[in-house]
Amino acid sequence: MLKTTLKATIVLLLLLITSATIQAENHPTEVNSDELYNPVPAIMHHISDAHEWHLWGEGEGSVTIPLPVILYTEGNLDIFNGNWISGISAIDEARLGSQKKLPSQVLENKGRNTYYFLPLILGIIGLLYQVKWDKENFFTLLLFFAFTGFAIIFYTNPKPFEPRERDYAVVGSFYIFAIWIGFGVLALYEYLKNFANQKIVAMAVSIVSLLAVPTLMASQNWDDHDRSNRYTTHLNAQAYLESCDENAIMFTIGDNDTFPLWYMQEVEGIRTDIKLVNTSLFATDWYIDQMKRATYDAAPIPSQLQHDQYKYGTLDVAYSLEHPRFKDSVMTIKNLLRWIASDSDVTYVDTENNTKEKFYPTNRIRIPVNKQKVLENGIVAQKDADKIVPYIDITIDDRALSKNRILMLDILANNNWERPIYFSITIGNSASSFSYLWDYFQLDGLAYRLVPIKTKSRSGQIGRIDADILYTNLMEKFEYGNMNGENVYMDETNLRLVMNIRNNFSRLADNLISTGDTARAVRVLDRCVELMPHNKVEFNFFMLPIIEGYYACNKVAKAREVILTMHNMFNEKLNYYAQFDDDNKSAIKNDQQRTMSIYNSVVKVLYANDKGDFTDKISADFQEQMQNPKLR
């Protein structure tokens, strides 16, 4: 039985090699990663799809494919993000539906890799070959494969849809399957040597196997794994640091916006005067102790809490419990820290476990502002002196504060406006991430500066803008490398990263236009489109203010050029969505609605600023799509 199975598998491999060759010649672009996603129980769905299938994708006939169709996400296993394809049309269409009318952004994506199942099949042949001829060692390898694959996933239990692929956790199983692929080559030789000269068979099998697996995988993977001439991470980290004034303190979070900054300071010696405070690590006593020491050219953080007051197991959390004495009153941040630092029983509350926990009596906190120091230390420019408020009132969490939040408030309480304080632009979108200071932020590049000037955040845009500072940073100081280079591949991580840059350019242009500085505004808009063209960074929602900016500066031709690019993209996507029947509409409903919504917004901007044949043509095409019964 095993021998018959082995023969059938070898024949299937040969047929698929032939099929793959025909497919590559006749249908070089008929592949996609779209899948109609049907949920299964979470753990099984996560193991079978998100991890083990990606294991096959790296070493066998499928791949996790990034597709920046609408959003820049990966690994979600929905119809647009992080699915796999074989490259064989009949199989892919059976799983994913029609592969025709795919948007150009999908067809031209370098991450669309197809292996035609050849590595997978060769590995299975090798596995069966070892089962037959070497059972003892097979079970050893199988155990290794199971423990470095399935068992690790069960043991670590990673949640589905992480910020990035976690396939490195099961890399050991990749090695084992690679061994089976090697055995697959031997199995082909052992079977075919009976039909021809052994030397000829050996050479033929070796050549075919090299072409079918490593050569195919190298040719498919090279362009989207090639990082040469792409310096976005390096230059982005430098831009974070260059966003800050001298002797600054910058709060970061996690690893993505911290490790590259550490590298720039440690290895390249750039902006070693800045004290970087990672808020994720700021909940540990050892890291707080590090922050209280000078590093490079940066002074220690200003802080009044001592080691014994925040050591492990101490002050892990402080609970909010309103005290009658402080009802409807505001406590200064200095007094809050005195309360937190106090050993008095009055500052503790008894819990159900007969333990005492720290609490704070009010969540309404005031940070006094020393206007003279603010101006002397350059935290606010002299031209904005009249905008400085006498104090900053904030409302902290009404349930509890974790240790890292308490230490952040400790810095704010003891800085006394001596050093500029910044928050990285990616630190988070919850109020606690910014210590409830959103309305007192100033966007200086890839960091927000804390300033005693109140600016109500609106439409998701945080903080105010000092046009001179932001213009200098974006247009003169920051370096962008060649991220718009022809051979540079912008993967999903980079695409998410540059959205902040595109948004910053549009905000700066809008600010310059509001003050009548249209000459600089046009330069900003042109630079934005030049750095992030559509073929590198898809024109999305963030392009709406770019279009409006061009119209406001009377650059109609440039506005129309952007609109026409987006118009073509919208129609490609909608024509693709229209192929789905009613049973599968739910899979694309949200993305279709999002596309229609942005399309509608573009048409509205066009109607408000432009008249004539161009507007009529775009509007007519939009109305045609709106009335398409297949899109309802």
Name some characteristics of this structure.
13 strands, alpha/beta, single chain, six-stranded mixed β-sheet, 632 residues
Would you write up a description of this structure?
The chain is an alpha/beta fold. The chain contains 23 helices and 13 strands. The protein has a 6-stranded mixed beta sheet. Strands 5-6-3-9 form a 4-stranded mixed beta sheet. Helix 2 packs across helix 8, helix 5 packs across helix 6 and helix 21 packs antiparallel against helix 22. It starts with a helix and ends in a 6-residue tail after the last helix. About 11% of the residues have low confidence.
List the SSEs and their pairings.
Elements: H1 2-26, H2 42-59, H3 89-96, H4 104-107, H5 118-133, H6 135-147, H7 150-156, H8 171-192, H9 198-225, H10 232-242, E1 249-252, H11 259-266, E2 275-278, H12 285-291, H13 307-310, E3 317-320, E4 331-332, H14 333-341, E5 348-350, E6 356-360, E7 364-368, H15 371-376, E8 391-395, E9 400-402, H16 403-415, E10 421-424, E11 441-443, E12 447-450, E13 464-465, H17 467-477, H18 492-514, H19 518-531, H20 544-552, H21 556-577, H22 589-609, H23 613-626
Parallel strand pairs: 1-2, 1-10, 3-6, 4-7, 11-13
Antiparallel strand pairs: 3-9, 5-6, 7-8, 10-12, 11-12
Helix pairs in contact: 1-5, 2-8, 5-6, 5-8, 6-8, 8-9, 17-18, 18-19, 18-20, 19-20, 20-21, 20-22, 21-22, 21-23, 22-23
